[in-house]
Amino acid sequence: MEQALRRLSRIKMFVLDMDGTIYLGEHLFPFMPRFLETVEKTGREFCFFTNNSSKNREAYLDKLSRMGIHIPAEKMLIASAVIIEWLKENRPGESCFVVGTPLLCADFEAAGIPQNDQDPDFVVLGFDTTLTYEKLTKACHFIRRGRPYYGVNPDLNCPVEEGFIPDCGSMAALIRTSTGVPCEFFGKPSPHTLEYMLRETGCKPEELAVVGDRLYTDIAVAAGSEVTSILVLSGETTKEMLKESDVKPDLVLRDLDELSGLLEKSEPHSRDSL
Ligand SMILES: [Mg+2]
Fold first, then answer.
1. Do 99 and 149 share a domain, yes or no?
2. What separation in Å is there between the alpha carbon of 20 and the centre of ligand 1?
3. Do residues 196 and 236 share a domain?
4. Distance, CA 256 to ligand 1 centroid (Å)?
5. How far is the CA of 217 from the centre of ligand 1 (A)?
6. How far is the CA of 174 from the centre of ligand 1 (A)?
7. Of the ranges 6-15, 96-105, 143-152, which one carries the lowest mean pLDDT score?
8. Is the domain of 180 the same as that of 199?
9. Suppose 28 and one of 9, 44, 53, 67 were both cysteines; which one would form an S-S bond, judging by CB atoms 3.0 to 4.6 Å apart?
10. Same domain, 37 and 12
């Protein structure tokens, strides 16, 4: 406990996962207003990061606002922004075939990345809830011709009210089986995302904590860095899954309500000490 409090005392920014961490589906966890208040009251900040590439930043800002959480756009981080920024810097002017929802395609368009379904320079795979056999066929065809391909997020499943639906990582597994080519993923846990979080928040690694309910994305993103990882057991991970996993969080908590309690006990964060 004391070690946890010491670790928390240096945290300036919490990067919060969404589903399973702050809400389940459409239901905000009842302790969230108190948690966000406690973060601010103790001189810290928070922002959100989602790997879900079927929607965009505006859709998430709307959803949060319907739940009574009103935040400026820069506090809503999303995996699709990580890959878009990387592409603009590393593959400028090149065209892509996007296997994604209309919202993801619109984000690529707004970023000025040309889309091409005849002879693209590379292929991008998102969590495409509008996936068709035609899109899969085209993507596999371009990849077989040697075009590089990138996945927005590696999640295998996305939680929904009725259980789970296949996410980007599962679609990438299908393409890999067909073509024999693995894709490079962005989003959590890629190093691209860790760099993006640090850049967007302006924090040093030791000042940042990532919080989430999924071991191989939310927690693994901090591996090998000074960033603190906090697993909450309010979503998909059970104690048994944690025991069997190679990914080990720095802190394991029941939920964000437990973190509120710890923050109230730990030394208030002082900006002057940084
Ligand atoms: Mg989650």
1. yes
2. 5
3. yes
4. 13
5. 9
6. 23
7. 6-15
8. no
9. 67
10. yes
Measured in Å, residue 18 CA sits from the centre of ligand 1 at: 5
Whole-number Å distance, alpha carbon 95 to ligand 1 midpoint, is 32
CA of 266 to the centre of ligand 1 (A): 26
Tell whether the model's pLDDT for residue 270 goes beyond 60: no
Out of 138, 162, 185, a domain closes at 185
Residue 199 included in any domain:
yes
Q: What's the CA-to-centroid distance between 259 and ligand 1, angstroms?
A: 17
| 171 vs 185: CA distance, rounded Å | 12
Residues 6+ apart with CB under 8 A from 146: none
Res. 267: pLDDT tops 80: no
User: Letter for the amino acid at 98?
Assistant: V
Residue that has been written with the tokens 């919080």 in this structure? 211
Confidence of residue 273 (pLDDT cuts 50, 70, 90): very low
What does each C-alpha distance from 117 to 6, 88, 107, 109, 139 come to in angstroms? 53, 19, 17, 14, 9
Separation CA 114–CA 97 (nearest Å): 9
Residue 63 tokens read as 């959803």
Predicted model pTM: 0.93
The domain in which residue 247 lies consists of: 2-51+188-273
Q: What's the gap in Å between 232 CA and the centre of ligand 1?
A: 9
* pLDDT, tens only, 163-208: 899 999 999 999 999 999 999 999 999 999 999 999 999 999 999 9
Residue 77: inside a domain, yes or no? Answer: no
